[in-house]
Amino acid sequence: MKKIGLDVGEKTIGVAISDALGWTAQGLTTLKWDERNYTTAKEPLKTLIDENNITEAVVGLPKNMDGTIGPRGEASQQFAKWLEKHYKLVVHLWDERLTTMAAERVLLEADVSRAKRKKVIDKMAAVIILQSYLDSQQ
Predict the structure, then answer these.
(1) Residue pair 13/129 in contact by the 8 Å Cβ criterion
(2) pLDDT at 113 over 80
(3) What predicted TM-score, i.e. pTM, was given to this entire model?
(4) CATH classification at residue 126
(5) I want to staple 103 with a disulfide (CB 3.0 to 4.6 A). Which of 17, 26, 110, 125 is the partner?
(6) Among residues 94, 92, 4, which one has the least CA distance to residue 47?
(7) Cβ neighbours of residue 12 under 8 Å, at least 6 residues apart?
């Protein structure tokens, strides 16, 4: 039962997948899309879901530091509903506060150049989102 982790932004979606046992998350890719037009992500996501036998999705839910849901959080909630409807997946929303900052810190500590960090930051954030969800299920 593999899971897909998604860090959903306005222009990109960071993607990670779990191993079959649901123990570890690995970064897969970063999809380019237009948040105003969900169909721009429809086929790439379908391909990833089908190729990896995905049964569940974990979507990062960006909350404000006080725990409230702002515009980005609402956008993630809408995306999660769309995923459930179009791919018939069980979708979990997962608090992603500070995951992008954590991903940035990991990449800085690994001495990854600024240009390369920009290319992989969303994928790394998806790994952190999915891994924290998987850890909570153990």
Answers:
(1) no
(2) no
(3) 0.89
(4) 3.30.420.140
(5) 125
(6) 4
(7) 30, 31, 32, 33, 122
